[in-house]
Amino acid sequence: MQNTTVFVIAATNRPNVLDSALLRPGRFDRLIFVPAPDMKERLNILKAITSGMPLAHCVDLRLLAERTELFSGADLKNLCREVISLIIFRVKNCTSTVQLFVLINVIN
User: Fold this and answer.
1) Contact, 73 vs 102, CB < 8 A?
2) Which of 9, 30, 37, 59 is a plausible cystine mate for 55, CB 3.0–4.6 Å?
């Protein structure tokens, strides 16, 4: 049998609710804190996510980045997915900043 090394990496946005059994010695030996993206990083994430979306000219991604403090990249992606759903179900052609702010409040 070949001797191989296996690395297990886990991630959570809520470490405070992890079962203490997971944190016993020998299970996950290192905990690495990765902070939420800052405003500039959120802006870059939003630009990447929306690069193929038909956004209205009035959409202010910088303002959205400012208002989504503590959102992870996954949270921002989910926000944009929800906007797409709203557009599909309401048959709108573009996305506005107001629609995004409404969703931020719904997600939080």
Assistant:
1) no
2) 59
